[in-house]
Amino acid sequence: MIPYDKRNGKIWYNSDLVDWSEVKLHVLSHGLHYGSCVFEGERVYDSNIFKLEEHTSRFFYSAKRMGFEIPYSESEINSATKKIVAAQNVKNGYVRPVAWRGSEMMAISAQQTKIHVAIATWEWGSYFDPKLKTEGIKLNISNWRRPSPDSIPWDTKASGLYMICTLSKHEAERQGYTDSLMLDHEGNVAEATGANIFFKDTKGDLHTPVPDSFLDGITRRTVIQIAKSKNIKVIERKISPNELKDFEGCFLTGTAAEVTPVSKISNYDYKVCKTIMDLSDSYQSFVRKKIAA
């Protein structure tokens, strides 16, 4: 795989299209040292950016929650995103908008820092190995928990919140798993390292954790919408790890993960059943505007 700093083309950077290799930030940028950085992840399907406006609104919300203001309007960021996708000729890929505090101040306080914004995009296929999208991925259970909602801006895509996700995923990979299931601060099921989680019971109903200490993902909401259009009951509730043995199916949802079945969590096995594969197929049709949910 080509390293991300060695790729070709342009990146939208503070209003300009800059050569990919020339986009730089100073090593003393506040966002690097103190996590004052927010981002989004968006998918391009057949040259169209899926739910662009919704992602951009969340991007601005994240910045506001982190105490800084993006120096552009939402419409300007939407236009810039479309511009860079067209410039890079991305047909089916990924978009990463990011905003961070600059290097004008180097301390906890950062009131006078400049806010930088960049938008990069590239062709990108499945987040997980395509074979695993049909066979199901395997998760361990992380030793790290999602923090209490009164200790972090939990409803943002802020860079610092993903530190324990990286630690969890690395541990899972060392143990031979693909990803990791994270519990919340109360010990209930929360999410995977970068995706929401659903379970299917023996009656065909779907169960998913209440997103009260982690992101209510845009893909998560879309899949709930699709499931309900198929008359599948979706129950949002607290889920104890003790219940993992009671479900027959499991899958993840996320911009990167899309709909990915899970075949195993720790010692519990799950079926990659027709319901899950049908939801995956319907999601793919929906994002390509072939069906209405």
Task: Explain this structure.
The structure is a single chain. With 293 residues, the chain is α+β, with helices and mostly antiparallel strands. It folds into 2 domains: 114 residues, Aminotransferase class 4, branched-chain amino acid transferase, N-terminal domain (D-amino Acid Aminotransferase, Chain A, domain 1); 158 residues, D-amino Acid Aminotransferase, Chain A, domain 2. Helices cover 27% and strands 28% of the residues. It is built from 7 helices and 16 strands. The strands form 2 sheets. Strands 8, 9, 10, 11, 12, 13, 14, 15 and 16 form a 9-stranded mixed β-sheet that branches. Strands 1, 2, 3, 4, 5, 6 and 7 form a 7-stranded antiparallel β-sheet that branches. β12, α6 and β13 form a beta-alpha-beta unit. α2 packs across α3. The longest helix is centred in the first third of the chain and has 15 residues. The protein is globular and about 55 Å long. The two termini are 36 Å apart.
- How many domains make up the 3D coordinates? 2
The number of distinct helices, counting runs of at least 4 residues, comes to 7
Roughly what is the average pLDDT, rounded to an integer? 96
Roughly how many Å is the radius of gyration?
Answer: 19 Å
Largest beta-sheet characterization: 9 strands, mixed
- List segments where confidence is low: pLDDT < 50 over at least 5 consecutive residues: none
Order of helices and strands: EEHEEEHHEEHEHEEEEHEEEEH
Q: In CATH terms, what is the architecture of the largest domain? A: Alpha-Beta Barrel
Strand content: 25-35%
End-to-end C-alpha gap: 36 Å
CATH-assigned homologous superfamily of the largest domain: D-amino Acid Aminotransferase, subunit A, domain 2
Using DSSP, what is the number of strands? 16
Q: How helix-rich are the residues, as a percent range?
A: 25-40%
The coarse silhouette is globular
